[in-house]
Design brief:
Layout (H helix, E strand, L loop, with lengths): L2 E7 L7 H14 L4 E7 L11 H4 L3 E2 L5 E2 L2 H9 L8 E3 H13 L10 H13 L9 E6 L9 H14 L4 E8 L2 E2 L4 E2 L2 H12 L6 E6 L5 H11 L6 E5 L8 H7 L2 H8 L10 H11 L5 E8 L9 H13 L3 E8 H7 L1 H5 L4 E4 L8 H13 L4 E4 L1 H13 L7 E2 L9 E5 L14 E9 L4 H6 L3 E8 L1 E3 L4 H6 L2 E6 L6 E6 L5 E4 L14 H22 L1
Parallel strand pairs: 1-6, 1-7, 2-5, 2-6, 7-10, 10-11, 12-13, 12-14, 14-15, 15-23, 16-17
Antiparallel strand pairs: 3-4, 8-9, 17-20, 18-19, 18-21, 21-22, 22-23
Bound molecules: glutamine (GLN).
The site of glutamine has 10 residues, from strand 19.
């Protein structure tokens, strides 16, 4: 029987519930169990796909094309397990299913209500992974205890655990133990109150994970255990990590959290080996080959979460090359005002990530031009590739004002254009080209060198594509088409032959990078950046 772990959060948001859930999943996986993760989000959007990154951070895309919460990125990076459509349910998605069923006559004669119809639909989502070969499902509930909108989710998990029995399900509550500077003390009262709210709706946490800035004293542990009704050993400290989020699983393992969880669920405690993970963390903290600075030129730069997977994948590329990657976050609109030289001078590599809308687009194109002309390693992703194509068309092929029809509908040179399959689509939600598609690599190219194989599968999220009418003109001027869809119709990767490392792809490689297994394009990009910057330093020295 599949066992269930429910993770809730109290006191404040941004407690890192997703990181904790992902870390626990990693530990349980390493104990020999098959684990699945999912997140239930209380907002009314059917998925986060239509939200600005400023609202919700990055939209993470699964293999099967779900546009999801960025916590799923943590899940995949920590565990290496692919998430699916069943890994993220929102209030909107649950209601939309129930309302469609009501219209179809699925509830004929009945009044459709939050309890039981909405809660039943949530429970159906929770059981979506139940299978003989799945041992444990970890379900994270978004939002904070006390939010009106998360109530149906909490009621659903309460019922679920009641139905499967205590030995098959457990509640983990993540809470904050703040340090009050003026008093010089850590305070347990917010946690007591948060657990109190849970208790009033019938949920008594089995395990309390306490986020804190400083270590908890024995007195704090005892107080939390007593007032929150949790065994002392099941009060876990999760202090802010010193260096990297990848330390979290190691910290939790040191407190035997995984052992207690398995004991509670009546599962055998198999041996665990975290040596590769430890080695990875050591490399991250003390890399052998120094550091490189990479510019990420985007339009949602002020919010760290907007490019979460990009930043993580760059870090992974650093781990693979044993080098620290420092990221210079550059707002593309500022390049428009101050010029590329002012903002990109001295970086070892330039990355232009994906995006939508025309704000800052010219700044991104200037960033591409700067990297191309100064022979700085360049990595373009999705919109970043489209900008690379526009730049090459304008400044190398002489196609003045070349553009994407996303931004200038009547451009004289539509080098990027709406995909044929998108022309009839009017709905905005979930209608892009989404999820994993195959791509074939060709010849003696940087892409082939990085991947070292001919067929790859990568995740997509776009409506526009390279306009094939310009293929010949651009190839003549030295643009290589090193990755194409298997039917040859869609350009997936472009490169500039006469450049140390200039690779741009229509897909999102960042979604498949993990700290133990950096994505080949990210490790290739960092490697090229290291080589370029050391040769430049060498030149200056000479
Ligand atoms: N806006 C572009 C498109 O829809 C690029 C999308 C992206 O970067 N994810 O094709």
């Amino acid at each position: 029987m599949t066992k269930h772990i429910f993770v809730t959060g109290g006191v404040v948001s941004s407690l890192g519930k997703g990181l904790t859930a992902a870390s626990l999943a990693l530990l349980l996986t390493r104990r020999g169990y098959t684990v699945r993760l999912q997140k239930l989000d209380p907002y009314i959007n059917v998925d986060p796909g239509t939200m600005s990154p400023y609202q919700h951070g990055e939209v993470y895309v699964t293999v099967d094309g779900a546009e999801t919460d960025l916590d799923l990125g943590h899940y995949e990076r920590f565990t290496g397990i692919d998430c699916t459509q069943a890994s993220n349910y929102t209030t909107g998605r649950i209601y939309s299913t129930v309302i469609s069923r009501e219209r179809e006559g699925g509830y004929l004669g009945k009044t459709v209500q939050v309890i039981p119809h909405i809660t039943d639909e949530i429970k159906a989502g929770i059981s979506a992974f139940d299978a003989d070969d799945v041992d444990i499902v970890i379900t994270e509930i978004g939002g904070t205890t006390g939010d009106i909108e998360s109530l149906p989710f909490l009621e659903a998990i309460r019922q679920y655990r009641q139905e499967i029995g205590r030995e098959n399900g457990l509640f983990i509550h993540i809470t904050l133990v703040p340090y009050i500077k003026a008093a010089g003390e850590m305070k347990t009262k917010p946690s007591q109150q948060s657990v109190g709210i849970l208790r009033s709706i019938g949920i008594i946490p089995d395990l309390l994970v306490c986020r804190c800035e400083k270590h908890l004293s024995e007195e704090h542990f005892a107080k939390l255990a007593l007032f929150c009704n949790v065994d002392r050993k099941l009060v876990i400290e999760e202090k802010d990590v010193d260096n990297t989020i990848y330390e979290v699983p190691l910290d939790l393992a040191n407190q035997d959290v995984d052992v207690y969880i398995l004991e509670k669920l009546g599962l055998h405690v198999n041996r665990i080996d975290m040596s590769d993970w430890k080695a990875m963390v050591d490399t991250l903290i003390s890399p052998r080959n120094g550091e490189v600075e990479i510019a990420v030129v985007g339009k949602y730069i002020s919010l760290q979460d907007s490019y979460k997977s990009i930043y993580e994948a760059l870090t992974h590329g650093g781990i693979a090359n044993s080098v620290r990657v420092n990221i210079r976050m550059v707002e593309s609109e500022n390049i428009e005002k101050q010029g590329a030289e002012a903002l990109l001078n001295g970086v070892a590599g330039v990355l232009v990530p994906g995006g939508f809308g025309d704000r800052g687009i010219e700044g991104k194109i200037q960033a591409v031009q700067y990297a191309r002309e100064n022979r700085i390693p360049f990595f373009g992703i999705c919109l970043g590739m489209q900008c690379a194509v526009m730049e090459f068309a304008r400044h190398v092929c002489g196609l003045d004002g070349a553009h994407s029809t996303e931004f200038v509908a009547d451009t004289a040179h539509p080098v990027i254009d709406l995909m044929e399959a998108q022309r009839e689509i009017t709905d905005k939600g979930g209608t892009m080209r989404l999820g994993s598609y195959p791509c074939e690599l060709t010849g003696d190219t940087k892409a082939m060198e990085a991947y070292d194989r001919e067929s790859i599968d990568e995740r997509h999220r776009h409506r526009y594509e390279f306009n094939n009418q310009y293929r010949d003109a651009m190839r003549e001027k030295g643009l290589l088409f090193s990755g194409l869809s298997p039917d040859g119709a869609l350009v997936e990767i472009v490169e500039i032959e006469e450049h140390p490392w200039f690779v741009a792809c229509q897909f999102h490689p960042e979604f498949q990078s993990t700290p133990l297994n950096a994505h080949p394009l990210f490790s290739g990009f960092i490697n090229a950046s290291v080589i370029q910057s050391s040769s430049r330093v060498g030149c200056q020295g000479a």
